[in-house]
Amino acid sequence: MTDTLLPLLKSTFGFDAFRGRQAEVVERVMAGRHTLAVMPTGAGKSLTYQLPSVALDGCVIVVSPLIALMHDQLRGARAAGIRAASLTSADADHADTRQAYREGLLDLLYVAPERATGEGFRALLDSRRPALFAIDEAHCVSEWGHDFRPDYRLLRPLLDAFSDVPRLALTATADRHTRADILVQLGIPQDGLVLAGFDRPNIRYRVMPRVGAAKQLAAFITANPGPGIVYCPTRDGTERMAASLAAATGRPVAAYHAGLDPERRAQVQHDFVTSEEGIVTATVAFGMGIDKPDVRFVAHAGLPKSIESYYQETGRAGRDGDPAEALMLWGADDFARARMRLSELPEARVASERTRLDALAALVETVECRRALLLRHFGEHPPERCGNCDNCLDPPRQVDATVLAQKLLSAVYRTGQSFGAGHVEAVLTGRSDERIVQRGHDKLSVFGIVAGEEARLIKPLVRSLMAREALATTEHGGLMLGPAARPVLKGEAPVLIAEPPARPARRGGRADR
Ligand code: ADP
Ligand code: ZN
User: Fold this and answer.
1) Is the distance from CB of 106 to CB of 84 less than 8 angstroms?
2) Interval 482-508 mean pLDDT
């Protein structure tokens, strides 16, 4: 079939060949088979329904949640000579579009999920059988996905009403759970999954503890002269970081977040896209729909929301295929905050959110290949080492900290689960300051049971135990035991951590802010 499609690919889009697994997806849907295509951003998902829209009789219906992206695509499709239209709240010509659909004058019709699930739309499709349903951003149908949209759940009756019309679900971000759920929710058979390669071999991944973000990032940026993005967890953070990095590096740095007025945002975006050295400190609001192939680095000043978001955000680096860097700084407090937020979630979401956090914890904690872990998360079977991540380039030594972890957890328990890491460390190392004596903590069996030599492992260990939820924080910031503490205390869960780097000369200021 590819033989007949190639000339169409060339004449419609000007491309000489299919990329990755595009051909497979197109062939499947042309043969009328339900399909879930999981392909990273930039892999060319739109082509997998745009080409069939030209090749097949009848109109392809594209369900898509973002009006702005829809209109971009619409322009692109029309530029390729495809007869495309959209039915969204931003379109004034609904009557004309419906008429064109009924007369069979459309190849491609974009529609938002809330409209697609309405009575009127169903009636429209009854007037003429569609050729294909393309469901973009299909992870929105799953509660396991990072962007669940209830409207997507209501699509199923529409799809089932046209059960002989093939379905093509598309997403860039679906882990194993989400993928399985999409298949079930949209009625696509198990063997309908087409998973394209997620590897971005030119991106070098580095993940390290945050011990002073501004300083660490300034050094990183100085070593990376090209344009880049620094993701910060908060709006204020983007502004402070911009000022600090500009001062420290002398590079043009602009802050970007949803609180800025639209003109300012457009300006920052425009400056960045045209710059060869510019840096944007941004919240995750920045990046979607930005077409800049030569981004040389993406840094995270704090823990990203999920492995999916991490992959998507770092994926904005090095689209041109040249070497690019991804650096993530994380702290125990990132996990503490994220785990705290779990308690505010509706019961039904807690399990999936916790799984997501555990996956992030595994990524930051691993002493093995980061890329292999990422790719396995997306269901691939990568080689054990990639040679282009921090752990492959400079393998950390592992230390067995199981016994130390037991001592630490006991100290947290015996001091009443309300003191911060500093106090617990002081108890363990036998520093009898006033606060300790006052509380009688110098009389505890855990007082002074950690030798000076081992003390350097305490901070990284707290981070590690926090990430794996053996430790949690109280609402006042004290340490308490988490659900994973028991197996550690009982010796059922070994605790291996990466040997911390030799301690730099101690300066004032708190670590791990
Ligand atoms: P996605 O939706 O997967 O993020 P797009 O559909 O926006 O990706 O495509 C990304 C880019 O790749 C677009 O510029 C598109 O024109 C281009 N592209 C898609 N398929 C091919 C192909 N077979 N050959 C060359 N370029 C392609
Ligand atoms: Zn690696």
Assistant:
1) yes
2) 80
Cβ of 21 closer than 6 Å to ligand 1, yes or no, is no
Give residue 312 CA to ligand 1 midpoint distance, Å: 16
The pLDDT assigned to 291 comes to: 75
**Taking a C-beta distance cutoff of 8 angstroms, is the pair 392, 399 a contact?**
no
CA-based end-to-end distance of the chain: 58
43 CB near ligand 1 (under 6 Å): yes
Reported as a pLDDT band with limits 50, 70 and 90, residue 2 is: low
| Proximal ligand: closest to the CA of 136 | 1
Q: Tell me what pLDDT residue 130 has.
A: 98
Identify which of 15, 39, 66 to mutate to test ligand 1's pocket (most ligand atoms within 8 A of the CB): 15
Helix (H, G, I), strand (E, B) or coil at 481: strand
Long-range contacts from 392-400, C-beta under 8 angstroms, 24+ separation: 393/204, 395/367, 396/367, 396/498, 396/499, 397/498, 397/499, 398/367, 398/496, 398/497, 398/498, 398/499, 399/457, 399/496, 399/497, 399/498, 399/499, 400/494, 400/495, 400/496
Any ligand 1 atom below 6 A from CB of 329: no
Whether the CB of 375 sits within 6 Å of ligand 1: no
Best residue for ligand 1 mutational test, from 27, 47, 66 (most atoms within 8 Å of Cβ): 47
pLDDT tens sequence across 118-148: 999 999 999 999 999 999 999 999 988 778 8
Decide: pTM greater than 0.90: no
- Taking CA atoms only, the protein residue closest to ligand 1 atom 12 is 44
Q: Is the pLDDT of residue 416 over 90?
A: yes
- Distances in whole angstroms, Cα of residue 10 to Cα of each of 7, 50, 51, 80, 108: 5, 13, 10, 11, 19
Determine the pLDDT at residue 40. Answer: 84
CA of 167 to the centre of ligand 1 (A): 20
